[in-house]
Amino acid sequence: MYSIERKAEIINILEKTGRVEVTELSILFHTSKETIRRDLREMEADYLLKRTHGGAVENDQNSPTGDEFPITVREIQHYQEKDDICRKAASFIQSGDSIFVDNSSTCLYLLKHIPANHQVTIITNSIKLLVESARNSNPNHIIACLGGLFHGSNLSLYGNITLKNASEYYPNKAFMSCAGIHLPDEVVDSSLLEVDTKRLMIERSDEVFILADNSKFGKAGHVFLSNFKNIDWIITDQKTRADQIASLEKAGINIVVAE
What is the pTM of this model? Predict the structure, then answer.
């Protein structure tokens, strides 16, 4: 099991029980106690938990700034659900597509699931996505990076230059996540800096996909992103409640549950 998988499961356990024990985690993950202690040290440094004698508890202070966690932290949260969602989302991508992929932690996992033989142009403002593409270089996947001002915490680009660059494209499909989905008709986001780019890509794309794990339903955000009428698909995971799915279907959204 990779470190990111262990950390994601540790977060899941903390959300359910409020605390974890080193000995129990060592048995659960079939690894040494020192490996678990290292994981917990790294997670404490990222404000994901607070270490205690023999284990850890939830960190009730969130990020040091009071805003959303940096993307390097958010990519760990709900890791398995995000990976499942991206695997399903990639099945909608066809060879020859031009797609926009935002800088969300969810969409980071999309790149690895796009078939290697598909010729795809990927437009993005995500520095993290560029790094991932460099690690798994594929000449069939052309990356078009939007310019702009650098947002260090999110590893993304924003501003007037980003909008000007984005206005040159008309993607077949746009894949993005959000801070929250509010019934009956609202998608909200966290970053005021990047929301204009996402709105423009929603407007210019033939199809818009929102990738949202179960934790996004009913969750607050700082800024309005879109009404449902501009969203074609919502892809979520199996933990999303049946009544939430039914409400989205009633609102006319095509909703897909990733297995």
Answer: 0.78
